């Protein structure tokens, strides 16, 4: 089926620094908020942490070989801010930047184009402790300085950049639901954090234009297809508001320079809206080049007046992954079409798509046929969106390796490659790895 995708379409795999690198205290790297959070009792399943993770820091050559054998032409990964700037600002840690230089050079040697995420949740702990991290408006300056530094360091070879991975998660999962670092639980704070993240996104785009003249930069959002539980007016309205909360707040605002109005009014009436200063919305809506869509599932929404969002998520009736997320490839096509139509007709990359399976080693192999089926159906959905006119440029499967799945620790496996945590982190390609390899090979 690959042949029906456009020439130059990027087929890749995606990872993130804290989830795979390990070496969390090595070669001058500073701690991140996840270093701190994962070491707090009760925050992560089984007390797991990213101290070692998949030890990608030491085994990146082996992992690039796995990508080369797989046949991908691109690889999405994130830079650990506190590996290159241990305290988030100030002097560069050359051993940290050397790691990324070696990684990028090796990728290019084997014909794999890097797509680099500047921030995938691992904020330098020093910035959190000294200036309250993302709660501070000053973060846009520090994020801007960090961005300029990595653009200067790697921008000659890296031409595709993402400012933030899922500001929805860095704000609401981290500051409202409290499930991710730093584990706070306050809506006004999470909306302030979301505002500072969007300001920082805009600042990074402005710095990018100064440094990398021949590259493109985008924003990767949680992209959950939202549907009403029934066709009632109430549920349809509830779904509209919830869609603004999960998606519109981070897809619409950087385009229009305004927060989604109905939801903003609700927050304003409740006195939890973010403080907007002169120039903020201009900075947030600094024009950028592409959307990153991280699609996994849908959310079915029912009216529920007791919540400030006026809704609650209900369990859908479709088959679910190990994360409890419904398998709903139709939602991908619908979401891509909506994003392309409503949010600026920009090129789109599917920057994450994949599933957690109950992967078991049997005679040294993992027959993850459910993941193969999930991939087939989502590739097909992406093709339908392309045929419907969506300017889709690439597809990154989450993830190359089983890795640290945040508050679930190592209990949830998303990899095309099994990582044997009991046996020296041995990498064992699963059935889905070979499916993807054959898909990419076939003309
Ligand atoms: O959970 C799998 C992956 C994580 O490992 C990545 O680091 C992260 O970018 C990522 N985001 C999502 C979507 C999470 C989500 C689903 C539904 C609603 C809100 C958030 C899934 N994943």
Automatic annotation (TrEMBL):
Q: Please name the NCBIfam families in this protein's record.
A: BGL
Q: Which PROSITE patterns match?
A: GLYCOSYL_HYDROL_F1_1, GLYCOSYL_HYDROL_F1_2
Q: Which InterPro entries match?
A: GH (IPR017853), GH_1_N_CS (IPR033132), Glyco_hydro_1 (IPR001360), Glyco_hydro_1_AS (IPR018120), Glyco_hydro_1_beta-glucosidase (IPR017736)
Q: What are the binding positions for substrate in this chain?
A: 19, 120, 165, 296, 398, 405-406
Family as reported in the entry's similarity comment: Belongs to the glycosyl hydrolase 1 family.
Example GO BP? cellulose catabolic process
What EC class does the entry list?
hydrolase
EC number(s) of the enzyme? 3.2.1.21
Q: Which Pfam families match?
A: Glyco_hydro_1 (PF00232)
GO CC, one annotated term: cytosol
Task: Locate the active site.
Answer: 166 (proton donor), 352 (nucleophile)
Indicate what this protein is called per its UniProt record: Beta-glucosidase
Its recorded reaction(s) are:
Hydrolysis of terminal, non-reducing beta-D-glucosyl residues with release of beta-D-glucose
Question: Which pathway does it operate in?
Answer: Glycan metabolism; cellulose degradation
Gene Ontology terms, MF aspect = beta-glucosidase activity
For this UniProt record, the keywords arranged alphabetically read as follows: Carbohydrate metabolism, Cellulose degradation, Glycosidase, Hydrolase, Polysaccharide degradation
Superkingdom of the organism of origin: Bacteria
**Keyword Heme applies:** no
């Amino acid at each position: 089926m690959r042949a029906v995708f456009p020439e130059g379409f990027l087929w890749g795999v995606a990872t993130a620094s804290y989830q795979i690198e390990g070496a969390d205290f090595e070669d001058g790297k500073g701690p991140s908020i996840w270093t701190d959070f994962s070491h707090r009792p009760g925050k992560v399943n089984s007390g797991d942490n990213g101290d070692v993770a998949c030890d990608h820091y030491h085994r990146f050559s082996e992992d690039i070989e796995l990508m080369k054998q797989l046949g991908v032409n691109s690889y999405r990964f994130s830079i650990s801010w506190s590996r290159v700037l241990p305290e988030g600002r100030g002097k560069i840690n050359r051993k940290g930047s050397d790691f990324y230089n070696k990684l990028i050079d090796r990728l290019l040697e084997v014909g794999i184009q890097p797509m680099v995420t500047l921030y995938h949740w691992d904020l330098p702990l020093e910035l959190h402790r000294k200036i309250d991290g993302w709660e501070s408006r000053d973060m846009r300056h520090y994020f801007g300085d960090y961005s300029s530094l990595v653009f200067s360091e790697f921008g000659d070879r890296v031409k595709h950049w993402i400012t933030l991975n899922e500001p929805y998660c860095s704000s609401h999962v981290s500051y409202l639901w409290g499930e991710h670092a730093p584990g706070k639980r306050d809506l006004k704070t999470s909306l302030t954090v979301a505002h500072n993240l969007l300001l920082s996104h805009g600042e990074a785009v402005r710095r990018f234009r100064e440094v990398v003249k021949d590259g493109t930069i985008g924003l990767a959002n949680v992209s959950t297809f939202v549907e009403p539980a029934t066709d009632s007016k109430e549920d349809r309205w509830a779904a509209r508001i919830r869609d603004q909360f999960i998606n519109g707040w981070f897809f619409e605002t950087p385009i229009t320079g305004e927060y989604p109005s109905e939801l903003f009014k609700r927050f304003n009436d409740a006195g939890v809206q973010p403080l907007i200063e002169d120039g903020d919305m201009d900075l947030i809506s600094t024009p950028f080049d592409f959307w990153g869509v991280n699609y996994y599932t849908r959310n079915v929404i029912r009216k529920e007046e007791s919540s400030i969002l006026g809704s609650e998520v209900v369990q859908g009736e479709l088959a679910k992954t190990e994360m409890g997320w419904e398998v709903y490839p139709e939602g991908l096509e619908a979401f891509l079409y909506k994003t392309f139509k409503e949010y600026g007709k920009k090129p789109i990359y599917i920057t994450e798509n994949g599933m957690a399976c109950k992967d078991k080693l049997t005679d040294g192999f993992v027959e993850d046929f459910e993941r193969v089926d999930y991939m087939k159906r989502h590739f097909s959905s992406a093709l339908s969106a392309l045929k419907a006119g969506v300017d889709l440029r690439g597809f990154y499967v989450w993830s190359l390796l089983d890795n640290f799945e945040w508050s679930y620790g190592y209990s949830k496996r998303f990899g095309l490659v099994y990582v044997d945590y009991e046996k020296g982190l041995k990498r064992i390609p699963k059935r889905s790895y070979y499916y993807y390899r054959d898909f990419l090979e076939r003309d």
